[in-house]
Amino acid sequence: MIAKQTASPNDPVAAASAAEGYFRNIYLTLKSIAIGMKITLRYCFSRSITIHYPFERLAFSPRYRGIHEFEADKCIACDQCAKACPVDCIYIDKSAPRKIDKASGKAVGGELLRYAIDYQKCMFCALCTEPCPTTCIHMGKNHDLSAYSRQDMIVEFTQLDRKGLRTPIPLWVERNAGSIPWVKAEKERLERGELATTEADIPAL
Ligand code: SF4
Ligand code: SF4
Fold first, then answer.
1. How confident is the model at residue 111 (pLDDT cuts 50, 70, 90)?
2. Per DSSP, which regions of 62-111 are E strands?
3. Where are the beta strands (DSSP E) in the chain?
4. Protein residue with its CA nearest to atom 5 in ligand 2
5. Residue 9: left (phi > 0), alpha (psi -120 to 50), or beta?
6. Cβ contacts of residue 150 below 8 Å, gap of 6+?
7. In the chain, domain spans
8. Which of 49, 70, 78, 189 is 20 to 30 A from 32, comparing alpha carbons?
């Protein structure tokens, strides 16, 4: 059994060390509170910004992870994204092996029969985008994919590709494009099959 060592009340060195530790703890506590309060105070006196969504557009950080955008013409159906997905929500099917044609940069070979993501399960971790050898699966900027059925939450990207789309056009975009200018512009971008910008569009505080 190891005896617990305690400072002797008559040992001046031990007493000084205990006092030093006591005051150091107080100093470190006050320092960490000051650092935290400095950040709080900065936001207290900064201009508050209220976005009148959906009438005003929301700003997203460059690495915001929204509904995927998929370039089917570059997908070689290698399954790397599906293997990386921690919740197994990517479904891929092909008729025969596919590979990238170096001249055109497009996938050739078998047909990509299915590329689907189940958004009931997807947790927007972006792990699927990391291993893709052709960089054809991206995290987009759409944040709302509300639907009326569970089946509608499974997005069939190959079917969208046949319509020239990289990502689904959400119901709210369809319904508000006629009355809200930025939503109209967003719908037109989606219809052109243009990928979302990765540039920062956050206004300064
Ligand atoms: S974002 Fe994450 S959960 Fe969603 S499909 Fe990609 S790997 Fe799977
Ligand atoms: S990793 Fe890329 S190329 Fe391979 S199946 Fe997924 S999206 Fe297609």
1. very high
2. 68-70, 90-94, 98-100, 107-109
3. 68-70, 90-94, 98-100, 107-109, 112-118, 137-139, 154-156
4. 77
5. alpha
6. 120
7. 14-45, 68-192
8. 49
pTM higher than the cut 0.90: no
Distance 130 CA to ligand 2 centre (A): 10
Identify the CA nearest to 177 among candidates 165, 191, 161, 166.
Answer: 191
Return d(Cα 136, Cα 106) in angstroms, integer: 10
Let me know the angle formed at the C-alpha of 184 by 181 and 187, rounded to the nearest 5 degrees.
155
Q: Which distant-in-sequence residues (6+ apart) come within 8 Å of 123 by Cβ?
A: 86, 87
Is CATH 3.30.70.20 the classification given to domain 68-192? yes
Return the closest-CA partner of residue 196 out of 117, 147, 138, 157: 138
**Probe ligand 1: pick from 75, 79, 119, 124, max atoms within 8 Å of CB?**
124
Q: What is the dihedral sign for C-alpha 141, 146, 150, 152?
A: negative
Verify whether ligand 1 is closer than 6 Å to residue 89 (CB atom).
yes
Q: What is the pLDDT of residues 114-164, one digit of tens each?
A: 999 999 999 999 999 999 999 999 999 888 888 899 999 999 999 999 999
